[in-house]
Specification:
- Helices cover 34% and strands 35% of the residues.
- It contains four helices and six strands; from the N terminus they run E-E-H-E-E-E-E-H-H-H.
- The relative contact order is 0.17.
- This is LON peptidase N-terminal domain and RING finger protein 2-like isoform X2.
- One of its GO terms (molecular function) is ubiquitin protein ligase activity.
- Pfam families: LON_substr_bdg.
Length: 177
């Protein structure tokens, strides 16, 4: 976390989708404001930017994930594909606009235990579960690994019950035919 501690003010923010620590986040960048943002991240050597969801009332979500750029491929039309990976969660303290894109002052979130982000598989599960962004965002902001894993467990129980109910319905229709 010490290598990130100096990147807390005016962090460039890409407003797009959910991102999670340890999970790859490929992006197709086609808006000029984000071309500029990515170019600046590369030129300054930070190779990092934040990813947040859009929030109607606040502009950007309260929580996000710091991404590290691994590779950028630029096309003749100016658009690019950015290969990035989530490295750390953060909370937005305040946000601003700079040259058309969002920036934010942030604080990094650390789990209560010694393991800063828990097992990587927990983020992968969260990334692929069929959840609304609001639910994913609530879990992203949790600093207790136990709390986060219990939330994922509750979600899996609900999904399993729904799948079992559907199977029972299918079985009853087959029986009645």
């Amino acid at each position: 976390m010490t290598e990130l501690s100096n990147l807390t003010r005016d962090v460039p923010i890409f407003v797009c989708a959910m991102a999670f620590p340890t999970v790859p986040c490929p992006l197709h960048v086609f808006e000029p404001r984000y071309w500029l943002m990515i170019r600046r991240c590369m030129e300054t050597g930070t190779k990092r930017f934040g990813m947040c969801l859009s929030a109607d009332h606040a502009g950007i979500s309260e929580y996000g994930c710091m991404l590290e750029i691994k590779d950028v491929r630029t096309f003749p039309d100016g658009s690019s594909v950015v290969d990035a990976i989530g490295i750390s969660r953060f909370r937005v303290l305040s946000h601003h606009h700079h040259d058309g894109y969002n920036t934010a002052d942030i604080e990094y979130l650390e789990d209560e235990k010694s393991n800063p982000s828990g097992p990587a598989w927990s983020w992968w599960i969260l990334a692929v579960l069929p959840l609304e962004s609001k639910a994913q965002l609530a879990i992203l902001g949790m600093t207790s690994l136990k709390e986060r894993l219990l939330a994922i467990r509750r979600i899996l129980v609900i999904i399993t019950r729904k799948m079992n109910s559907r199977q029972e319905l299918v079985n009853s229709r087959e029986w009645n035919n």
